[in-house]
Amino acid sequence: MLVHQQRTNHSAFNAGILTTFGKLSQQDIESLDGNSERLETLIAERYGSSREVARNKVERFRFELSNGLANHNQNRINKRGGS
Question: Which of 29-33, 44-48, 65-69 is predicted least confidently?
C-alpha cells in the first residue's frame, strides 16, 4: 500500500511539473530523479529567470501540490465515511 501511494505521489508530482512548467520536457523530468536543485536550474534556464525566482516557483508548486494531494486524500476518506 505504501509503495502504491509513493508511486501515485511521484506520478502526480511529475504530471504536475509537466502541466505547471510547460517548457520542461518529459526527458527533463526523468533526469531530475527527485533533485530539486536540478529542477530549479532547469526552470531558471528554460524560463530565463534567476535561481531565486525558480526556487520560489518550485516551492509554490510543491505547496500547491501537497495541498491538492491532501485535499484529494481527505475527500477519498470522506466518501468512504471515515473521519
Answer: 65-69
Contact indicator for 47, 23 with CB cutoff of 8 Å: yes
| Residues 21/27/29/32 CA torsion (nearest 10 deg) | -140
Alpha carbons 36 and 51: distance in angstroms, whole number: 12
Between the CA of residue 75 and those of 8, 57, 67, what are the distances in Å? 16, 27, 12
Q: Are 18 and 11 in contact (CB under 8 A)?
A: no
Give the chain's count of helices (H) and strands (E).
4, 0
Sign of the Cα torsion 53, 59, 60, 62 reads positive
Note if the pTM is more than 0.90.
Answer: no
